[in-house]
Amino acid sequence: MKFFLKVHQCSMRFDALLDRWGYSLVGLLVRGFVGWQFFKSGLVKVQDWESTLSLFREEYNVPLLPPEIAAVLGAGGELVLPIFLLLGLFSRPVAMGLLAVNLMAVVSYPQLWSFECPAAINDHFYWGILLLILFAKGVGEFSLDSVLQKRFKIPTTA
């Protein structure tokens, strides 16, 4: 009986830890996962800038922007925003910025919709959903936003 009581006590402590840190840990993992997807894409773009420019001129149909500016904004967003996301700094605006980059990729590259394998477009949907969750719920305790909020005694809105 003592064994089951100890197991129950450990379970209750674990539940308390999850209540306190569970979302923060999941949020950190999601931030790392989604940020890495965008960061990798940005690295590919800057590694061969001429090919990137060629893609933006010939393949991608970014509305309202010249291809050169769209390429700089796209690559810059994919390289800078994930760093802020991982650090948890300006998390909600950064999540919306990456969502905009994601949406622009889906809108400007119609071939995503015609591939036989739906994985490419599905990835964009999954990333978008994860970014929306981060925007709506915040990124949790493991973030610079949380540290700054506590340091400067900024009231929470929730």
TrEMBL record:
Subcellular localization(s) per the UniProt record: Cell membrane
Superkingdom classification of source: Bacteria
Keyword Transmembrane helix assigned: yes
Membrane topology label: Multi-pass membrane protein
PANTHER family: INNER MEMBRANE PROTEIN YPHA-RELATED, OXIDOREDUCTASE CATD-RELATED
Record family assignment: Belongs to the DoxX family.
Name the UniProt record assigns to this protein: DoxX family protein
